């Protein structure tokens, strides 16, 4: 049976560390060709820029070829074809499927019927495991370690799939979490229960200023309009947080600001040139991490 990456829980702590080490190797030498002859499908049923292009770049750097589509408009799904049938058919053509889908749980469905490895590139408000692995890569590069870090996650804890995956992954490294969000966007109960069962320390606050000076990583997120069924609910919380340079006056020297991107208004552009900003470098590491994931799941490294 193929090994998939649907949830970050599909990788052990040891596998996560292996992926990060392998990504570092690829960053030193990104021109590879050991996947020559392989074909990988990138199926994006939901719009994407960084994730889709970094996956396609990763495939090309490894010597394989890409087929797929960047959105759902030109697929047989518009004719009523089920996701299961789509995945079964495409499995016949390729060696791996990378899929983003707006519905939570869609990646599980795809993996259950595919005859090749499936990578979840984001399924609704559920999980985004490859984002988490590139986040861990960035954290390790900036802090020199993953263990015993103070991580403040700000913004959309409720619908933020990158947040959900990151919380699960970092829990293996004895962190201290702060969840900064309005009451309407607090972290789902199942993740809080997981932290309680694991003995992971955390606090929940509503102002960035309440915990910014103590954190090693400040992980900003946007409020995702596309996840709200109620427009009024979105309008109420969309501009709750905005990080400005004046708020960084007393932060730790090693503190770095991360963001899964795209940003809207939550980080002022004046921060981009400060020593604390790391979100563009964070995204830049995504190609190497995805090269590592693809290689590992296909059994090459």
Detail the topology: elements first, then pairings.
Elements lengths: L12 H16 L10 E6 L5 H12 L3 E5 L13 H9 L4 E6 L4 H8 L4 E6 L5 H15 L6 E5 L6 H10 L5 E5 L8 H10 L2 E5 L11 E4 L10 H7 L18 E3 L20 H6 L1 H12 L4
Parallel strand pairs: 1-2, 1-3, 3-4, 5-6, 5-8, 6-7, 8-9
Helix pairs in contact: 1-5, 1-10, 2-10, 3-4, 5-6, 5-10
Largest sheet, spatial ordering of strands: 7-6-5-8-9
Secondary-structure-based class equals alpha/beta
Low-confidence stretches: none
The string of secondary-structure elements, in order, is HEHEHEHEHEHEHEEHEHH
Short structural summary:
It is built from ten helices and nine strands. It has 301 residues and is α/β, with parallel strands linked by helices.
What does this structure look like?
The chain is of the alpha/beta class. The chain has helices spanning 13-28, 50-61, 83-91, 106-113, 129-143, 161-170, 189-198, 231-237, 279-284, 286-297; strands spanning 39-44, 65-69, 96-101, 118-123, 150-154, 176-180, 201-205, 217-220, 256-258. The strands form 2 sheets. The chain has a 5-stranded parallel β-sheet. The protein has a 4-stranded parallel β-sheet with strand order 2-1-3-4, sandwiched between helices. α6 (161-170) links the parallel β5 (150-154) and β6 (176-180). It is globular. The mean pLDDT is 92.
């Amino acid at each position: 049976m193929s090994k998939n990456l649907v949830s970050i829980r599909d990788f052990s702590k040891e596998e996560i560390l292996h992926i990060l080490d392998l990504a570092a190797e690829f960053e030193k030498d990104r021109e590879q060709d050991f996947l020559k002859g392989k074909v990988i499908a990138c199926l994006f049923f939901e719009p994407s820029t960084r994730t889709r292009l970094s996956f396609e770049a990763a495939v090309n750097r490894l010597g394989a070829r890409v087929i797929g589509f960047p959105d759902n408009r030109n697929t047989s799904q518009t004719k009523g074809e089920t996701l299961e049938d789509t995945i079964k058919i495409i499995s016949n053509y390729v060696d791996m499927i990378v899929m983003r889908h707006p519905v939570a749980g869609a990646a599980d469905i795809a993996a259950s019927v595919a005859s090749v490895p499936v990578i979840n590139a984001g399924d609704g408000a559920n999980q985004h495991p490859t984002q988490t692995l590139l986040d861990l890569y960035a954290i390790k590069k900036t802090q020199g370690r993953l263990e015993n870090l103070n991580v403040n996650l700000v913004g959309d804890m409720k619908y933020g799939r990158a947040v959900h995956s990151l919380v699960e992954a970092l829990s293996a490294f004895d962190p201290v979490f702060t969840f900064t969000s309005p009451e309407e966007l607090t972290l789902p109960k199942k993740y809080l229960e997981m932290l309680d069962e694991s003995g992971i320390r955390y606090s929940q606050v509503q102002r960035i200023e309440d915990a910014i000076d103590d954190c090693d990583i400040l992980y900003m997120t946007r409020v995702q309009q596309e996840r709200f069924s109620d427009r009024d609910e979105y309008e109420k919380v969309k501009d709750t947080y905005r990080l400005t340079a004046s708020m960084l006056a007393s932060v730790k020297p090693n503190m770095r600001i991360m963001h899964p991107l795209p940003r809207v208004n939550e980080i002022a552009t004046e921060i981009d040139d400060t020593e604390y900003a790391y979100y563009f470098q964070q995204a830049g590491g995504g190609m190497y991490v995805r090269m590592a994931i693809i290689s590992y799941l296909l059994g090459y490294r």
